[in-house]
Write a structure and sequence with these properties.
The complex is a heterodimer.
Chain A lengths: L2 H9 L7 E5 L25 H13 L4 E5 L9 H10 L3 E6 L6 H8 L4 E6 L5 H8 L3 H14 L6 E6 L7 H10 L3 E6 L6 H8 L3 H14 L32 E4 L4 E3 L10 E4 L5 H8 L1 H6 L14 H4 L4 H5 L16 H9 L25
Parallel strand pairs in A: 1-2, 1-7, 2-3, 3-4, 4-5, 5-6
Antiparallel strand pairs in A: 7-8, 8-9
Chain B lengths: L15 E6 L2 E6 L5 E4 L2 H9 L6 H7 L7 H13 L5
Antiparallel strand pairs in B: 1-2, 2-3
C-alpha cells in the first residue's frame, strides 16, 4: 500500500484516534493573545478526578498509545500528577504542553523520574520582547527557567513548541539553535484564528512572502523538527511535499476532549458546529468516536468545492477547516492563507458576513481602569 | 553483514503494542515512541506469529504466504526491523 493509499484509508477514520488532545483545564496563569481555547478561568463543570480516570480507562481499552495533555495550563490542576501517573500506569504515554510556570526544581526531578512522558514548553520567540508580546510579560523568562530546571534534573529530550507568527518567522534558525542547546526537539505549528486567536490572527499570521519562507525552511529542516503536520496547506508552493501525512486529521485520526468532557473534531475548533458529543454521554468517548454524526460525516469523502478548478488541490487539500471557519470562509473553499492567493480574495468576499465567534470563552475579565473618587 | 531476514529468528519487541485497524494494524513502540502502519492484514498475521522460535521463512510458510510475495514481506519486515519493532 502506497502512502497515498494509506492517506485515503486514514481519511475514512481509525478505530481509535492516533492523536488525541485533552485540555485538562481552562484555568491558566497566562493570557496569550492567540490561545486556541480562550483559557483563563477554570470552568466549574470540569471533569472530576474520577471522571478523568474513567476516560483514561476507556482510552486504555481502545488502545490509544499516547495522548497530548494541555489546557489552559494543565499543571494548575491539583490532581495533575495523579492523572499523569494513572495514565502512564494504564499504558497511555503522555505528552503535555505547559508554559513552564509550575516546573520548579522539585517538580522537574519528579517529571524526570517518569517513563513514557514528554514535555512541551511553549515559547513563541527566542527573546523576551518577541515572545512576551504574544504570551505576556515575564513568560519568556518563565519558560527558560523551566527549561533550565528540566536540563538540570536530567529530563532528557523535551520539546520546545513555537507557534509561527509574522514576528517570529525570522527566528526559525535561532529557535532550532535554542532547542539544540538544550538537547531539546523543536516543534513549530501554524497559527490558527481559533479562540482568542480569532482577534489576533489578522495581525499575527505570516504574510504570503513569509509562507514561502516557512515552506523553504521546512523543506531544508523538516525531517528534524516536529510540525504536527500543520503546514500541509504550504504544499502547493513546490514540487517537494513536506514530511508527514499532509491531510486534515480532524475527526479521522485526531480529536479533542475539552476540560468539561466535550469532544470536538480537533483542538482548533472549540465551537458547537464541531462538537461531536461528550465523554459524559451514555457510551462515553468510544461511542462519540465511533458513531457520532459529526465524525461519521468528516470521514466521508470531502468535496473540493470552489477549489476543484485549482490544480493544486491534491497538494494542499484545501487547507485547514478551522482556519476557514473562524475567518468566515466556506469550508469547501480556499484556506485564508491559500498560497495561490485565493484566500485573500475569499476573505474580501467574506468581509461582510458574520464571522463565527468562539463559544467557550474562559478569558479573565478585562481589567477596566477604576476611577476612585467623586464624579 | 547479517544473514537475510528470512533466515533470522525474529520476534516482536516486548515494548511494541499492535492495534487492529481496518487496513491492518498500528504498531507502537513504547521505548522509542515510533508509530508504524502495518498496511496489510497478512503482514499483521505474520508479525503476530514471529516469536523467535522459527526463522522468518518458516513463519512465512506456516502463515501460508505465497512464496511469490516473500520479497515484499521481506521489505516490510526490514522496515520494522530498522525501527526496532522486531528484534
Amino acid at each position: 500500500m502506497s502512502k497515498t493509499q494509506l492517506v485515503e484509508q486514514l481519511k475514512s477514520g481509525l478505530d481509535a484516534p492516533i492523536c488525541l488532545t485533552w485540555e485538562l483545564t481552562y484555568a491558566c496563569n497566562l493570557e496569550c493573545v492567540h490561545c486556541l481555547s480562550s483559557s483563563g478561568r477554570r470552568d466549574p463543570r470540569e471533569l472530576t478526578t474520577d471522571e478523568a480516570k474513567a476516560v483514561l480507562d476507556e482510552l486504555h481499552d481502545l488502545q490509544v498509545f499516547y495522548i497530548n495533555m494541555g489546557g489552559g495550563e494543565p499543571m494548575i490542576r491539583r490532581d495533575f500528577f495523579e492523572l499523569l501517573e494513572y495514565s502512564i500506569s494504564r499504558g497511555i504515554g503522555v505528552k503535555f504542553s505547559t508554559n513552564g510556570a509550575f516546573i520548579d526544581t522539585a517538580k522537574a526531578k519528579r517529571l524526570a523520574a517518569m517513563d513514557y512522558l514528554d514535555i512541551q514548553i511553549s515559547l513563541d520567540g527566542t527573546d523576551a520582547v518577541t515572545n512576551d508580546a504574544v504570551r505576556g510579560e515575564g513568560s519568556y523568562d518563565t519558560a527558560i527557567q523551566a527549561m533550565n530546571h528540566l536540563r538540570e534534573a536530567g529530563f532528557g529530550e523535551f520539546k520546545i513548541s513555537v507557534v509561527v507568527t509574522r514576528y517570529n518567522v525570522d527566528q526559525l534558525d535561532e529557535s532550532k539553535a535554542l532547542a539544540d542547546e538544550y538537547g531539546a526537539q523543536l516543534r513549530i505549528t501554524r497559527l490558527r484564528p481559533s479562540g482568542r486567536g480569532a482577534d489576533s490572527w489578522h495581525d499575527l499570521h505570516p504574510t504570503q512572502a513569509q509562507q514561502r519562507q516557512i515552506y523553504d525552511w521546512l523543506v531544508l529542516n523538516g525531517e528534524n523538527v516536529l510540525t504536527g503536520d500543520s503546514f500541509f496547506h504550504l504544499n502547493a508552493l513546490g514540487e517537494e511535499p513536506l514530511p508527514g501525512l499532509n491531510m486534515c486529521g480532524a475527526g479521522r485520526v485526531v480529536c479533542l476532549i475539552d476540560p468539561i468532557g466535550d469532544v470536538y473534531a480537533c483542538p482548533f475548533v472549540i465551537h458547537d458546529e464541531f462538537k461531536a458529543g461528550s465523554v459524559r454521554d451514555d457510551g462515553g468517548f468510544s461511542q462519540v468516536w465511533k458513531q457520532s454524526d459529526l465524525f461519521t460525516e468528516l470521514r466521508e469523502p470531502q468535496s473540493a468545492g470552489a477549489c476543484s478548478g485549482c490544480g493544486e488541490f491534491d497538494a494542499c487539500q484545501g487547507g485547514c477547516m478551522a482556519a476557514k471557519f473562524f475567518t468566515g470562509l466556506p469550508l469547501d473553499g480556499p484556506d485564508p492563507e491559500c498560497v495561490k492567493g485565493h484566500g485573500e480574495a475569499a476573505l474580501l468576499a467574506a468581509s461582510s458576513v458574520q464571522v463565527p465567534k468562539p463559544m467557550m470563552d474562559h478569558s479573565k475579565p478585562s481589567r477596566v481602569p477604576v476611577t476612585i473618587g467623586r464624579r | 553483514m547479517t544473514d537475510s531476514l528470512l533466515e533470522q529468528r525474529l520476534m516482536l519487541h516486548p515494548q511494541v503494542a499492535l492495534r487492529p485497524e481496518p487496513f491492518g494494524a498500528l504498531a507502537y513502540h513504547y521505548g522509542n515512541r515510533k508509530l508504524v502502519f502495518l498496511k496489510h492484514p497478512d503482514v499483521v498475521r505474520l508479525v503476530r506469529a514471529l516469536d523467535g522460535t522459527g526463522t522468518t521463512a518458516e513463519k512465512l510458510s506456516e502463515c501460508k504466504i505465497d512464496a511469490a510475495r516473500w520479497p515484499s514481506f521481506e521489505h516490510a519486515l526490514a522496515n520494522l526491523h530498522a525501527s526496532e519493532m522486531l528484534k
